[in-house]
Amino acid sequence: GGMEFGEFARCLLDVPAFAEFAAAERLRYTDTAQIVADLLRKLAEPVATGERPVVVLLETTGGIAAHPNYRAVAQAMRARGLDFRLGEVQQVELRRGRLELEGTPIDVALRFYAAGEILECPRGPGVLEPVLAAAEGGGTVLYTGLENSLYNAKGALALLSDDSHRSEIGRAHV
To answer: What pTM, to 2 d.p., does this model score?
Structure first.
């Protein structure tokens, strides 16, 4: 699932019969979109220049069209006060040390592409140069970096359950 599932739950509460059922059963949901919006707002604080942080969900070439659910994510983030946009890596440019999308400076780039997808881009890995330069220079926050892909796969869970390697994983990380 993704952020949009919290939105589904929120919308269900607008249906009187379901709202009554949820109250009777003391059902609740976690507003993941609000949690993410709060995090993005906090990440933007050091670089934001306006009242509303400008965030771009950054995908690989063709990634926005391939994931129509991103529109729901954008709508949820906008409803929570962010200037939230959808963009692809080849659309952003580096200007004055910051990423820009269609002339608008970006405070936070929310990375939704994987390293392997970038290798398949028509422009190749060089398409990331503006993104990395803006992040390294501090003009735009990149959330999260490519190293995150190493841990978001289920295969990484094997590291936690493999006793033969447990000593290599610090106690604080288990």
So the answer is: 0.80
Q: Quick check: 53 and 41 in contact, CB under 8 A?
A: yes
d(CA 101, CA 93): 7
103-126 pLDDT tens trace = 999 999 999 888 788 888 888 888
Please confirm whether the linkage preceding 144 is cis (ω < 30° from 0). yes
Q: At what angle do helices 32-44 and 70-79 cross, to 10 degrees?
A: 70
Please work out, in degrees rounded to the nearest 5, the angle formed at the alpha carbon of residue 22 by the alpha carbons of 21 and 26.
Answer: 120
Assess whether pLDDT exceeds 80 at residue 155: no
Instruction: Name the 3-class secondary structure at 33.
Output: helix
Which of left, alpha, beta for 101 (phi over 0: left; psi -120 to 50: alpha)? beta
What DSSP letter does each residue of 116-173 carry, written as one string? HHHHTSTT-GGGGHHHHHHHHHTSSEEES-GGGGGTSSGGGHHHHH-GGGGGGS-GGG
The dihedral sign for the CA sequence 85, 86, 89, 91: negative
pLDDT of residue 148: 55
Q: Tell me the pairing of strands 98-101 and 92-95.
A: antiparallel
Cβ count near 95 (within 10 Å): 13
Q: How far apart are CA 158 and CA 166, in angstroms?
A: 10
